[in-house]
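comment on this one:
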Amino acid sequence: MFNKILIANRGEIACRVMKTARKMGIKTVAIYSEADKQALHVKMADEAIHIGPPPANQSYIVIDKVMDAIRQSGAEAVHPGYGFLSENAKFAEALAAEGVAFVGPPKGAIESMGDKITSKKIAQEAGVSTVPGYMGLIEDAEEAVKISNEVGYPVMIKASAGGGGKGMRIAWNDDEAREGFQSSKNEAANSFGDDRIFIEKFVTQPRHIEIQVLCDAHGNGIYLNERECSIQRRNQKVVEEAPSPFLDEATRKAMGEQSVALAKAVGYTSAGTVEFIVDGDKNFYFLEMNTRLQVEHPVTELITGVDLVEQMIRVANGEPLSITQDDVQINGWAIENRVYAEDPYRNFLPSIGRLTRYRPPAEIAAGPMQDNGKWADDASVGEGFAVRNDTGVFEGGEISMYYDPMIAKLCTWAPTRGEAIEAMRNALDGFELEGIGHNLPFVSAVMDHPKFISGEMTTAFIAEEYPEGFEGVDLPDAALKRVAAACSAMHRVAEIRRTRVSGRMDNHERRVGTDWVVTLQGVEFAVQIDADHEGSTVKFADGSSLRVASDWTPGDQLAELTVGGETLVLKVGKISGGFRIRSRGADLKVHVRTPRQAELAKLMPEKLPPDTSKMLLCPMPGLIVKVDVDVGDEVQEGQALCTVEAMKMENILRAEKKAVVKKINAAAGDSLAVDDVIIEFE
């Protein structure tokens, strides 16, 4: 076995690989850019080597710099993670020339399957059904428009070397095809160092289901069932689960066997994923093969008990697979939510900054497993639940503008899908994250969405269910009542503490009353609190009551309560006269007042926000790529005004209405903060 492995990556996937390497007794080497010198993967590794400036195209994807780090460290093998150089045949070739093992497939398989155009041609020749499209390279935007018309709108414009949603655009007309071609080309060049583009038909209402394969160099190949990845935003997966709630055993078997056959046809070794589009009749179409470890691999590990990173390392060491197809089982259900530094209230725009608070829920293991990575024969299906959090950040660390905005991958496992969803809801409620915008409220809302709960979602889920973006969640009346009861009991605890503050004036004793008015989400509850040593009974005006028990103390930012006999987890912030409460995707200002205070509060005038209707504000910290208008120009609704790049993604900002440009405050190359004024209109 290898003594030392270099991980040619950063963030959570580098940390993930290190955990398995440590378990196997293998030393690890991290590489890092200037922006990552304090990163978690650097701290976790046995040694770390600096390889350049923050931009990935000057550090992590520069093959010569990575090779220098390998020579310095004496590493015998390299795990590439995902993204960066993971599907770069030249990198695999350079490693082979140096006599260093690549923890991934051989160069020929990467060239055949890692390139989307080549892989589609091979799939077609093998008789695999593929999505209609143009497989050749496209030279310019006008050729892209011509091909798009031949294929038929809508079309998907994709980077040949792409992945992770980078370099992908959907075009519904000629103008969008022109813009999408150039943006995809730019993103592909920046993210992968390869700006080749191809176009295929965009299949509406599809499901995105992928098959995990594992092959060795001895002719053995297996599939580890499927992952449902249909909930995506901007073609980037947000929620994944295994197995799929849609597939039946016959379809699963057909997709799995076809995936293994395809892998064997190109001499594939290591872990890989074959992605399919599946329609409502369970017809499946080959989309692409990712010749690397997928971001969402944990859900497969949780239902099969197979450590995919360990298997990749063993295959790279020349070992045959110790697992046969008959060993692969589906034990329970697993769900993964990707936690991103994206603000859902600002149309999911990237958010950067320092994590002033990062307290993920405690990880919990479930189900006995054997050392060889398989479920034990006596493992009882239905034993508890699991929580797993794969991350590459820590409290006090920074989310950089240079890399992918992923903070963590939160996973839960349980015997059934319903139990796995409930475990995820509670885990999300208990995830403390402050300092930046993040998507925890959004994924919490998805977990409660009827379409997700029913399993009847498609890749259009987010676009269809949140067409105007995410504006938060309105809790149902029963949930509001539980939050109101909890907050009134918490407020009483805080008030009692305030009465005990020393140094009070004489003859000014403060008494805590029993009658309160709780206001939240535009609803008002008059309550009466009857407290004892075990908790509080909160009585409502309609005659109902809820028993509240908790060990919460003022200042705690997480409250775990029992309300009406059921667990309620709240994230708690202090505001004047109450709390800022976050629960199940809702962000609530909860005011707890005396009846007289509540009466007077209704007389207070509402503070109106400033008028920014005649300004184009920068929606995220980023770099101005170009400005498309000049002072004096008349712009129309939907017209492109400028392009802002942040976290490897280009964002085109458009006019919301007809207007005349009065002043331009930024130029290409400028770095802007959130809400900086880019353009002013007359």
Summary: The two ends are 69 Å apart (CA to CA).
